[in-house]
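Quick question, first post here. What does this chain look like in 3D?
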Amino acid sequence: MSSSAPQDTGHRLWSVDEHLADVLGAVRPLEPIELQLLDAQGCVLVEDVTVPVALPPFDNSSMDGYAVRTADVQGASEEFPAVLTVVGDVAAGSGELPTVGPGEAARIMTGAPLPPGAEAVVPVEWTDGGTGGGAAAGMTPASAAPEQSGGEVRVHRAAEARAHVRARGSDVQAGDLALAAGTVLGPPQIALLAAIGRGTVRVRPRPRVVVLSTGSELVQPGEPLTAGTIYDSNSFALAAAARDAGAIAYRVGAVADDADTLRSTIEDQLIRADLLVTTGGVSVGAYDVVKEALSSVGSALSSGSADPGEDDVDVDATRIDFRKLAMQPGKPQGFGTIGPDHTPLLALPGNPVSSYVSFELFVRPAIRALMGLPESEVRRPSVRAVLKADTALGSPAGRRQFLRGTYDAESGTVSPVGGSGSHLIAALAHADSLMVVPEDVTSVEPGTELEVILLC
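> Answer (accepted):
Ran it through. Tokens below.
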């Protein structure tokens, strides 16, 4: 890597780390609530959950077959089967159970409790199924042949004690820790909670994230394009990214470059937002209306680290920060809180790649922090990988560059995808990682080791 000193632009440039620290410093985990199990999916548990009763709560069969005493089937074979008297059926959910005495067996189904006196279960395939013929392939339904719950069964193989028996408490014992606080509740965790009898659970709710893009040139997909218009991809990308991060995402259609309209839209959305994300309108153009619109609804962050500058908007002695970051793509950024509940808002640049990279670096960590996840799970994981490329990669001095790449874990290499342009959506769609070029590096030669942020 070749190095160069950062350029002095005459304006304060914030580092990526400084900006992220301010964002995370202003975001607090959402207050816990009690939710029904299915409503809690994707949420973070806020308390340890212990097991109230053993699981399974009783000895039960892991096979369809016959509950037997081991002494009665000792030495059994196809030539000399053990002939046992069938004393009844034991189905899953059975309450009253037959007692299995010497020379007896009970027909038993998977999950059914082991009846008194029985020591093991022989699968039905080890028997004649009560038909008097050869090895059975399965059981005849009880409704079709109720008489088979009685009569005799021939057992062709011996069984050791506890064979095909799931012991009480073999999964978890009463008093065991089922799930620890901080666990994200996915389908297996929901299943465990249901299995131990929990109908509700105390969690931090999934953050509600409202995403809206700005720009009079934006048209909704499915509608015809006219001269000078493009399709709105940012709001779709960021709403999907918010869901991927664990949030409940609400996508708002593109808002025209009119401060009053944007202001009204933002105020309307606050009722359902724990976090609001805008794209576009944060640069220095004549139609970048986000600063103007937010100036009358925002309240400043009191991070204490920001220096007042010409891009700060003062509102009743408070401030929404619009910054220039030492990064590419994504130099213009905005961050503050808005509305009576001081809802966090991140204002991202409008170029698609800039917007998405900014989301991954700043919005995703904010969502994860709102969820109450530990610090180790707030940011995307990163690895070190060797650059695999035909030529050296250039990078602007004084900027931390994030280039799209594909990571090969087996070889420990990463390859660039597309160029560095912030409009190259197709390249972004084929990338699974971001290659990080430090601020003091202007050229990265093939074979150089880089930090790589994994996106999936």
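The two ends are 27 Å apart (CA to CA).
Residues 2-10, 298-310, 312-318 have pLDDT under 50 and may be disordered.
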